[in-house]
UniProtKB/TrEMBL annotation:
The gene is RPP21. Gene3D superfamilies: 6.20.50.20. InterPro entries: Rpr2/Snm1/Rpp21. This is Ribonuclease P protein subunit p21 isoform X2. It comes from Alligator sinensis (Chinese alligator). The keyword Oxidoreductase does not apply. The keyword Phosphoprotein does not apply. The lineage of its organism: Eukaryota, Metazoa, Chordata, Craniata, Vertebrata. Belongs to the eukaryotic/archaeal RNase P protein component 4 family.
């Protein structure tokens, strides 16, 4: 049985706005203003509800003016070679912003990798939800070990508190 999606209606709205922007641009290139409005609304809804968008959706939208980047209609796409690597350069015709994407056939986005899927994640117990496992060392010994690695030496005072004093090494200049 599939898990329930938290913001199903919001995700459906985002999908509808993205598809509507594509349909408007497919019918006539004069509909760029309406497509930009749909994309801007999609971006504002996803930011307001803190929803992550798929990388393929983010790659087809301009960050500066929220235009839908369709090659030949609202964007130009070029292949360039730089430092022995091939790059795809997408330039927005509305605002002039350029995006560069590396052409590497072996590269896969994190969202496309099997480790990214929720069902492939290891199940954790309720008890082990903490990320940091405390060490078995007493707090006084931890402070000494930490201060020794940073070039500090701890000394006990009469009240039982510790004060850190800088160790003088061979590299320290005298009179400081």
């Amino acid at each position: 049985m599939a898990a329930q999606v938290k913001d199903k209606e919001a995700l459906q709205r985002l999908s509808f706005l993205y598809q509507a922007a594509h349909c408007v641009l497919a019918r006539s290139p004069d509909g760029q203003e309406l497509a930009r409005f749909y994309c801007h609304t999609q971006r504002s809804v996803s930011r307001r509800l803190v929803l992550r968008q798929d990388p393929s959706v983010k790659r087809t939208m301009c960050k500066a003016c929220s235009s839908l980047l369709v090659p030949g209609v609202s964007a130009t796409v070029r292949q360039r070679r730089c430092r022995r690597q091939r790059w795809t350069i997408v330039r927005c015709l509305t605002c002039g912003l350029t995006k560069r994407f590396l052409n590497n056939p072996e590269y896969k986005l994190w969202a496309e990798q099997p480790e990214a899927l929720l069902e492939n994640q290891p199940q954790c117990d309720q008890k082990s939800t903490g990320l940091h496992q405390p060490s078995k060392e007493p707090p006084a010994q931890k402070g000494k070990a930490l201060s020794g690695t940073l070039g500090f030496q701890s000394q006990n005072t009469s009240e039982g508190t510790t004060e850190a004093t800088r160790q003088k090494g061979k590299g320290d200049a005298g009179g400081r």
